[in-house]
Design brief:
Layout (H helix, E strand, L loop, with lengths): L1 E8 L22 E4 L2 E11 L3 E7 L5 E7 L8 H12 L9 E9 L4 E7 L6 H8 L6 H20 L2 E2 L8 E4 L4 E4 L6 E2 L16 H11 L11 H16 L4 H5 L1 H17 L7 H13 L10 H4 L13 H6 L4 E5 L4 H4 L2 H15 L5 E5 L10 E5 L2 H11 L3 E2 L2 E2 L1 E5 L1 H5 L9
Antiparallel strand pairs: 1-6, 2-3, 3-4, 4-5, 5-7, 6-7, 8-11, 9-10, 12-14, 12-17, 13-14, 15-16
Helix pairs in contact: 3-5, 5-8, 7-8
């Protein structure tokens, strides 16, 4: 049990979503951390690795965050903690990189001390999105959103001279409040040309040159000057190919066929998927992915160049499944209101008041909109003060009946709602 701590840093803002690093054993987690002189209850262990565990913590309904607690390493030092802290402190301020709120030392009841990072709490990971999509693959809207956000993060990171070195679906998470994907886990990151980590990247997302370097290190041999930022582009190329195909590609990228002609395999993946709609965006995505998956790192696209791909100039609408999976502060209620109620002003005003009263049970409502005409005719759009409130409302309203109808509750992009842009979502 955590008994106390010494802390430093700034307080987190009040609302953040749910970091998801995969299922982990819930035993032996601390009951609380004392952070900045305040008791934070541990709600769940979100992930556990060799060197650290990540917990969701809360100091009451208004404050949630993530704590990454590092184990003392075999040499009795805090190298992993100092490494990740120094990288995060150096790259703070980009919207597509997880926010570090502060650092503290936790003292447990056994007299041991552990170093901790207090981090922004995020939502669903791309790893979980891949599981939910099974073999269907994701919509072009989600793929484009994820690709752009990660490339923006990499472009910034690479300009600062850093290589992430462990890009994988589990390290790309959705932020409900900021409505974008963010990079996490900088434990293997290093300054280009100053690689201080022997074994880098995760199997299945490892660039060929990193594979070679890891093999040399295992044999006790020295490689060349180290891997460049190009390894991050390789990892992202594999992630996007998995998001498009809905298939895990670990065995594929290990195969001799892939090593001999990866371009033909990418062509086959794209040709074998039935796509409804125009083919040109699909070709742009295929070419973007190919530009990241050259076996020669010198021929691989840079993050900045990839952001100029024509794939990013095409507007896509989200599928309804996308709006169920990716939380935002705006909730959209379907199957609630009959058309005939919309044209009787008195009935319409009553419905607006009833809906507002119902939705305020779950959190502070900033605005509520029920369009009388298409697009969005008869749908209810509810903007909450935070994504935490909209998530609670979505959970409790889904499947409820309103005027004898079963309610369908999805999230809705805050940016589109603010602009008054109501998507005709693809079913």
């Amino acid at each position: 049990m955590a008994c106390g701590s010494e802390s430093g840093g700034k307080e987190p803002s009040s609302h953040h979503g749910t970091v998801s690093l995969g299922d982990a054993d819930q035993t032996m987690k601390p009951a609380f951390f004392e952070i900045f002189g305040e008791m934070w209850n541990v709600q769940a262990r979100l992930g556990q690795g060799v060197s650290a565990s990540v917990y969701r913590v809360s100091s009451g309904r208004a404050s949630s965050a993530a704590v990454k607690e590092f184990q003392v390493d075999a040499q009795g030092g805090d190298y992993g903690y100092h490494k990740e802290r120094s990288v995060l402190e150096d790259i703070q301020g980009h919207k597509n990189i997880v926010t570090l709120y502060g650092v503290f030392t936790n003292h447990n009841c056994l007299g041991a001390s552990t170093r901790c990072l207090l981090l922004e709490l995020l939502d669903v990971s791309v790893s979980e999105l891949l599981v939910r999509a099974s073999n269907q693959g994701h919509s072009m809207w989600v793929i484009q959103h994820c690709a752009r956000d990660v490339l923006e993060a990499l472009s910034f990171l690479h300009r600062e001279g850093y290589v992430h070195a462990d890009l994988k679906p589990r390290n790309v998470l959705w932020s409900a409040d900021d409505e974008c994907f963010k990079l996490i886990d900088f434990g293997l990151s290093y300054k280009e040309g100053h690689q201080d980590v022997k074994y880098i990247q995760t199997d299945g997302y490892r660039a060929p040159e990193a594979e070679l370097q890891n093999s040399l290190a295992q044999a006790g041999l020295e490689g060349d000057a180290g891997c460049t930022v190009a390894i991050d582009l390789w990892s992202l190329g594999i992630i996007l190919l998995e998001m498009y195909s809905g298939i895990k590609l670990k065995e594929t990228v290990r195969s001799q066929e892939w090593k001999d002609n990866s371009s033909a395999i990418i062509d086959h993946i794209f040709a074998s998927k039935i796509v409804v709609g125009p083919a040109i965006p699909v070709y742009h995505l295929r070419d973007l992915i190919k530009s990241m998956l050259h076996h020669d790192p010198n021929k691989r696209s840079t993050a900045e160049k990839a952001l100029c791909s024509p794939f990013f100039s095409i507007p896509f609408a989200p599928h309804i499944e996308d709006l169920v999976m990716l939380p935002t502060p705006v909730l959209r209620l379907l199957n609630v209101i009959d058309d005939n109620h919309l044209h009787n002003e008195e009935e319409y005003e009553d419905i607006v008041e009833d809906m507002k009263a119902e939705c305020q049970k779950y959190g502070a409502v900033v605005s509520l909109l029920i369009p009388k005409e298409n697009p969005g005719k008869g749908q209810v759009f509810v903007e909450y003060a935070s994504a935490g409130d909209s998530k609670e409302a979505q959970r409790l309203l889904t499947g409820r009946t309103f005027d004898g109808k079963f309610v369908v509750a999805t999230f809705y992009p805050l940016s589109a709602y603010k602009r008054g842009y109501l998507y005709q979502t693809v079913q």
